[in-house]
Design a protein that fits this description.
The longest helix has 19 residues, at 3-21. The termini are far apart. This protein has a ten-stranded antiparallel beta barrel. Helices cover 17% and strands 47% of the residues. The chain contains three helices and ten strands. It is of the alpha+beta class and 207 residues long.
Amino acid sequence: MSWKRAWVGLVGGSMAVAVAAGIAWAEPKKDEPTLPKMDPQMEAMMAEMAKFAAPGPEHKVLEPLIGKWKTSTKMWMGPGEPQASEGTAEYAWLLDGRFMTYHGRSTMMGQPAEGFEILGYDRKAKKYDGIWVDNSSTALFQFSGSYDEATKTLTYMANWPNPMGEGTVPYRMTTKIEGPDQHVFTMYQVSGGGDQKIMETICTRVK
């Protein structure tokens, strides 16, 4: 069991005992028994967790994405003109600004397409982490990245299962914040001969 799970279990168990016993979370009155002193190791663990528990300035980077958007997507499936589609998307905060959710709806090859994402910044690991799921697969896709303040661009790297065979395929994805009312998501397949652009989505804010 990881220390995070142990901590969650300890907190959950303590709260359950307190509720069952009708204990109020307040300073003990005179002649009332006090709770036993916390173990020093657990106290140090709590202090370490508290340093990274609240959202930081890195989370504020995501603020311009919050809201509802119209999406215009192009997909390059091979030589020739890309396939184009229109859709909608919405970003919202989760858990008091610790994470951000994305929910998008569009079409792909004439079929309904829907995807959901959770993105956050790990203040301890110092990186953006996310997971992606959609209705074209039963897989859960993970990615990690960073933010460049000079270009207002989030860049993520991922190694996802090869849809045409064994192993994985590397991808690079960017979200460039061009202003409060527009950002552009671009996806590339990484290869030794140069990154191949396979998708671009322009998001325009709904007002």
